[in-house]
Amino acid sequence: MNKFKLLAFLLFVSVLANAQEKKWTLQECVNRALEKNISVKQTELDLEAAKIARLDALGNFIPNINASASNSWNTGLTTNVTTGILQTQTTRNFSAGVTASLTLFDGLRNFKQLQRAKLSRLAAEYSLDQMEDDITLMVADTYLQVLFNKQTLEVLRSQNEVTLEQIERTRELVDAGSVPQGDLLEILATNADEKQQIIIARNNVKISLISLAQMLLIKDYESFDIVERDYDILGTEVLDNSVYDVIDMAKEERSEIKIAEANRDLAEKDVEIAKGAYLPSFGGFFNYNTRESGAGRIVSVDVDPEDPTREIGVVEATGDVVVTPNTVSTIGNPLPFFEQLQRNDGISYGVQLNIPIFNGWATRNQVKRSEIDVQRANFQLEQAELDLEANVYQAYVDAQGAKEAYEAALVAVEAQEQAYEYATQRYEVGLSNALDFSQAKLRYENAVREVLRAKYDYIFNIKVLELYFGVPVSELKF
Fold first, then answer.
1. At what angle do helices 255-275 and 362-428 cross, to 10 degrees?
2. Are 148 and 453 in contact (CB under 8 A)?
3. Which segments cross the bilayer (predicted)?
């Protein structure tokens, strides 16, 4: 048993260690966000609600069936259902029924409702697609920001190692009297500045990782990390198209326009539904009912032997007395429950026609409101097209600018690297002082960081432009 517990504990520790060592790729982060993100879940609920609305619309084409049953007790002065005499009594009565009704015609509103439900579901699907695109870009942007911060930290650490080597070399030269003490102080100051930048960069990495983890709904901030690899710049061929080609493709593919078009179609369908209230409605119904009572039943009716007749009136012309047999009813126990139900059942069926004549302008006003909604939806569609054009144009310009900035940064870093190597050589042979060397080194570090920033900015802007060009989220390449 002890060995088993030890093995289980070691297995648990191993699993925990592997979980903590897991590093997330960009694709895994995107998949996690699309699965767990609250905004995506809310949009998915809208889609589920649209599916339920479609079932509601389908329900208008099938009969409504309702059953009812009641069992009541009446106490007080009531008519005896057996004898027909008013008397103080307590009676129990049971009744039950089933009714089926079907709308045969309602101004085609049931057909229009079904069409509207289909449009509503389509609009919900477009909204989900747009939300997934937005979440993908947000995750990609944050992920690339983490990579930029990590690589910036590595650059700073690498350059600081060079600075530490220069400190040792400069100290030796100072001790030998080859360079002044000020050169050593200059490099020591550079080292202190680099240490401070490393601390800031390390904090930036941690903050960006926390931001990404929160986006993915991951609570274990301490162990959360991403895969550190260099991403290539892919998808640049989208810039081979003109901005107008990208705009035309975006109008065909982007969810913003599809959502606005669906909302316009919904508004137009609402007008048709509202106008259906002007037309008559026609339906049919069928009802089956039965009843049972706990009151006694009349078993037999016999002439009273003690008083066989009773006077019921007098003939006015002759004065003759009119009599009738005086009967006595024998009350017995009620019939069994199910036998009463069988004897007392009945059915009713028929059709019903409703013709609207006047309802205080309610139908007319609803039609007018729906027509206003159509105009509003048309304006929103027009605005969505204008916004999309502006956004695509901005994204296209940003992508082109990011490309030029990246290319310029590559040229600059190459030049600064050569200048730094030259300054290093001059400093090592004593032809320049520590200040010149530190300045050359600082310019080179800034150039390297600018290349990283420009590269990831370029990658992100290309992905934005690809989405506008109609590339699905699942096909984006990083």
1. 170
2. yes
3. none
Please indicate, yes or no, if residue 324 is contained in any of the structural domains.
no
What pLDDT, on a 0 to 100 scale, did the predictor assign at position 284? 93
Confirm whether 7 is domain-assigned.
no
Tell me if 205 sits within 8 A of 155, measured CB to CB: no
Specify if 97 maps to a domain: no
Tally the domains of the chain.
1
pLDDT confidence of residue 84:
66
Which of 103, 98, 106, 110 has its CA nearest to residue 65?
98
- Assess contact for 280 and 106: CB atoms under 8 A: no
Higher pLDDT, 373 or 92: 373
In a domain, 49, yes or no: yes
The predicted pLDDT at position 442 comes to: 84
Both tokens of residue 206?
Answer: 């941690």
| Three-class secondary structure of residue 317 per DSSP | coil
Give the CA radius of gyration of the chain: 44
User: What is the C-alpha to C-alpha distance for residues 325 and 304, in angstroms, rounded to an integer?
Assistant: 8
Q: What is the CATH number of the domain that holds 386?
A: 1.20.1600.10
Is residue 7 pLDDT above 80, yes or no?
no
Give the Å distances, CA to CA, from 352 to 57, 153, 282, 286, 358: 22, 80, 6, 11, 18
pLDDT band at 9 (very low <50, low <70, confident <90, very high): very low
The structure tokens 């069409």 sit at 115
CB 451 within 8 A of CB 406: yes
Task: Give whole-number Cα distances, 94 to 67, 290, 344, in Å.
Answer: 14, 9, 11
pLDDT digits (tens, 9 = 90+) for 274-330: 999 999 999 999 999 998 888 777 777 777 777 778 777 777 778 777 778 877 777
pTM: 0.73
Q: Which domain holds residue 165?
A: 21-62+102-278+333-475
C-alpha torsion 205→211→212→213, nearest 10? 110
Q: What is the mean pLDDT of the chain?
A: 86
